[in-house]
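REVIEWER CHECKLIST
Item 1: Sequence provided? yes
Item 2: Single chain? yes
Item 3: Sequence as submitted:
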Amino acid sequence: MTVIDKPDTKTIPTFHGGLANLDREHSYWLTDVEGTVPSDLEGTFYRNGPGRQRIGNTPYGHWFDGDGMLSVFSIAEGKVHFANRYVRTPKYIKETAKQKICYRGFGTQIPGGTIRNVGRMPGNPSNTNLVYHGGKLLTLYEGGHPFHVDATTLETHGEYDFEGKLKRNMVMSAHGHFHGPTGDWFNFGAGSMGFGKNGPKMCFNIFRIDKQGKMSDFGQLPIGHFPFAHDFGLSNKYGIFFINSITMGPISEVMLGRRSISEGVKFDDDIPMQIALVDLNTLQEVRRFQTDPGAIIHFGNCFEDGDEVVVDAMHSDQFEANEALSDVFNAKRLRGGEYRRYRLNVKTGQLSFEVMSPTNAEFPTFNQNMAGRPNHTTFSAVSVENGHDSFFNGIQRVAFDGNIQLNTLDPGYFGSEPLFAPSKDSAADDDGYILEVVYNGYDHNSSLQIFKATNITEPVATLTLRHHLPHQFHGFWHDKVMLNDAR
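Item 4: Structure as written out by the authors:
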């Protein structure tokens, strides 16, 4: 789309309209189509994120606390079907019935002061990501257990604990990763290894889930403080854990009901960022690196190159985003970080990085068929200064030969996490399509835009929904049409 020069920001809508609730659940075929849906694109585009930011007349205290709503685009034979459905967590069910806040959240307190919050842990909105593995569709939120959702009906079956191996006191992050050589799925969660003189001994619990969906291995990685830990990297040999300089504060204050978790989050310039490599065969740490204070929120591909481990990641040297997310209806700007490519030498301990793109970016995506192997191209959401850059407003294609292609949306339109979907019989790592949900602030509706991955300057198809989709977080592609209504 063409960028408008020096737009009048007084007449251009902000991203805030995309935070409005979508309380109604839909299932219909998209008929408002511009362009042509590719015939070699077939499968299901799943997304998860908060479907509502208010309950009754009360907003939640943080963007992370809105209830999880699945958005499902089924694509086949040049047609696209859309459906959305909320995850029926206990939080969603109770708050929907009472139309008021009944659970604490990452940044939400139950109205009524300390006495109403003491001893109550945050509820699980299951709103951040999802995965299909071992025949099960699981919705993910790093403050609790996954929820099992029927992939064909979107009916919620309940919390899932991998046949009791994910203990009640354990959490599992919103970002698991598939291991290319085995097809196993790895994930992690913040936890403890007992108590020491200074209180709980913090760790990352590491989980290996085999192709049948069984938890086949478990390990623990000691860490020195309670960090904000959202994602990790995975190569063929290693789990790569960046132990961020973002601290979560003492959990005792949360347990006493005096503050939310979000209120204790801060970026600590006195804490260097550490990087731990964990051997995937033993789930034991083999090397640790240390570098300047910083934080990695999301990872791209990771692979070995001789003695080096190459890690694509989005780096930040602050966490101002948390303040904005805590007052999201009044936030002026939500942005990402710097796209870096790290090189970690396992033998020498040397660490280096290069900046892959000068554009503020987040949500890296690539062809998952290349996971753990050198890939040529990565895509991401970007925030571009076009006179109204308050939110992600474009996508970029970054080739590792230095070529960068940028597509900026018109002011008043706002993007989301792009997702790579391989074409049928895909042969190259950019042989496929980029799927992007775009919010139109003028008409208060959303569309699915489909781009050829080799050229993202213009979509090959734009399919407009009958309504808006609230800004969501993450998703994945499955190469089969799963939903019964779309078959």
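Item 5: Key structural point noted by reviewer: The radius of gyration is 21 Å.
Item 6: Recommendation: ____
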